[in-house]
Amino acid sequence: MSETLIKDGGTTFIRVSDNGSGMDMDDAKNSFIRHATSKINSEDDLSSIKTLGFRGEALASIAAVSHVDMQTKLKQETYGTRIEIHGGIYKFAGSTGCPDGTTITVRNLFFNTPARLKFLKKESREAALISDIVLKLSLSKPEITFKYINNKKLIFNTPGNNDLKSTILSLYGKEYHDSLIDVSYKGNILSIAGYIGRPESARSNRN
User: Fold this and answer.
1) pTM score, two decimals?
2) Cα(105)–Cα(134) distance, integer angstroms
3) Is 2-120 assigned to CATH 3.30.565.10?
4) Which of 8, 59, 84, 87 is 20 to 30 A off residue 29, Cα-Cα?
5) Domain ranges in the chain?
C-alpha cells in the first residue's frame, strides 16, 4: 500500500506512507545523506545496474528546504525510528512507536528559500503534476494499492490486485475502461502485453 496526501498543491503539506519493509535507525539516517542509495549493496552491483541511473539526492534536497518528519519501522522490531530535520538541521533522531513501513511528512516547502517558492506554479497545477506521478506509478505497479488524496478529497484509490485493467478502471472510469483494446505480442526477443485506448477516448488532461 502507498498513500500520498497533499494540501495546497504540496506547498504546505505532503505525506507519503507505505506498509513496506521499513528501515532501521542507521539506514533511516543514511537515506538523508547526499548521493545515498539502496540500489547498490556491493561493488559487483555496479556492473549489473538495470535502472536508468540515480543521484541519491531526493531526500537530502527536500530536507534542506522544508520541515521533514520520517517515521519508519522494520516488521520484526518492536519500536521504529523517527527523524525530524528542519532546513537541513537535525531536530530529533530516536526511537518511536509507529506502524510497519515508512511515512515521510514534508511541511512548509521552501520556507527558507522564498525565491524558489515563487517559481512554483498554481496550487491546482502542482497538485495535477503530483497526481500524474502517482497515477503513472499506479499503472506500473498494479499489484500495489495506491491512494491519492488532495485537500482531504480522495482522487483515486487503486485495488492493488495485480490486474492492470482493474487499475485502469479505478483511475479512468468505466467508459474509458470498456473502450480499451487488448494488445499482446510474443516474439523471440520481445514480448508486449497491455491495453490501448481508441482515438475517440483520448483526453487532453485527466485532471
Assistant:
1) 0.88
2) 16
3) yes
4) 8
5) 2-120, 164-201
